[in-house]
């Protein structure tokens, strides 16, 4: 991934933590199942984690390893003996949580990704302190806890992505597409200016690819057409403007590249389940800081 594309991905990455806690697993105990509502993050505080995924070889993850598990991934997590046969201890202690991570507010970072991203992070003492602070804030949330936990988690995610970007992890989805320098240029062109008069041909030109090859590669990586990607980026920009400004809906529609208010309203209602005016009213009534789940579970 070229530095400009990587920079754009990171600066527009929005991380929202749904829950965060510490868990201790004794030998003979396991965490099993899967989640469909967000990315699962696991950071190994002590011991060695064994990650079992159907039809894949088990992975042993020692202290200091961060795992990002895509939504819906079936997995079993158990304590294991130490890496290279060295027994670290009878228990596995992990900091774990669930989060959303979206580029430009709408595109799931690990959407369409089937494999976990596994990174050994540098500065383990610093990361342990960050995890401890997040666990404490999640257990007893106060003013600003949501913003603080989200910001600290983004630090960890950025460090993991920086490590993974040079390796063959996360080849599918938006992250995988951004790793392709050709597709990355087209994606960033949309993210930076959704309202521009993008076409498949103009985006293919930005990627220095033929129209047919670009459309094929784009759909294979992101499971959507280039123009569907453009439409989603425009609608997200519209949602942001509805939330953050008092601009009339007609002006917002024009500013984000829709030919008419009615066209924008139909597309917005299909995507968000409410027309723009209703969405604006509902958003104003939503509490800004939902509560976290409690910390300290032991299995």
Automatic annotation (TrEMBL):
Annotated HTH araC/xylS-type domain ranges read: 184-282
Key word Iron present:
no
Q: Which UniProt keywords apply?
A: Cytoplasm, DNA-binding, Transcription, Transcription regulation
One Pfam family matching this protein:
Cupin_6
Disulfide bond listed as a keyword: no
PROSITE patterns to which the protein is assigned, alphabetical: HTH_ARAC_FAMILY_2
What InterPro entries does the annotation carry? Answer: AraC_lig, AraC_XylS_family_regulators, Homeodomain-like_sf, HTH-like, HTH_AraC, RmlC-like_jellyroll, Tscrpt_reg_AraC-type_HTH
**SMART domains recorded for this chain?**
HTH_ARAC (SM00342)
Protein name as catalogued: AraC family transcriptional regulator
Q: What is the lineage of its organism?
A: Bacteria, Pseudomonadati, Pseudomonadota, Alphaproteobacteria, Sphingomonadales
């Amino acid at each position: 991934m070229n530095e400009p594309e990587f920079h754009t991905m990171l600066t527009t990455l929005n991380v929202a933590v749904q829950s965060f806690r510490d868990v201790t697993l004794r030998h003979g105990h396991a965490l099993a199942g899967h989640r469909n509502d967000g990315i699962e993050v696991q950071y190994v505080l002590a011991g060695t984690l064994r990650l079992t995924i159907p039809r894949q070889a088990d992975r042993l993850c020692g202290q200091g390893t961060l795992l990002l598990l895509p939504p819906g991934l079936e997995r079993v997590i158990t304590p294991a003996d130490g890496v290279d046969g060295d027994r670290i201890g009878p228990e596995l202690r992990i900091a774990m949580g669930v989060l959303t991570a979206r580029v430009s507010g709408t595109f799931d970072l690990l959407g369409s990704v089937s494999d976990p991203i596994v990174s050994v992070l540098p500065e383990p003492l610093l990361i342990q302190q960050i995890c401890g602070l997040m666990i404490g804030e999640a257990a007893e949330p106060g003013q600003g806890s949501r913003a603080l936990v989200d910001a600290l988690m983004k630090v960890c995610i950025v460090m993991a992505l920086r490590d993974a970007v040079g390796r063959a992890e996360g080849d599918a989805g938006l992250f995988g597409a951004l790793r392709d320098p050709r597709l990355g240029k087209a994606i960033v062109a949309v993210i930076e200016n959704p309202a521009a008069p993008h076409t498949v041909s103009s985006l293919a030109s930005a990627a220095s690819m033929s129209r047919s090859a670009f459309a094929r590669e784009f759909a294979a990586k992101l499971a959507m057409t280039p123009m569907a990607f453009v439409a989603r980026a425009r609608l997200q920009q519209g949602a942001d403007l509805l939330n953050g400004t008092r601009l009339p809906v007609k002006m917002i529609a024009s500013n984000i590249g829709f030919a008419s208010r009615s066209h924008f309203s139909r597309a917005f209602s299909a995507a968000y389940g409410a027309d723009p005016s209703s969405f604006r009213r509902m958003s104003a009534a939503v509490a800004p800081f939902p509560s976290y789940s409690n910390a300290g579970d032991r299995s």
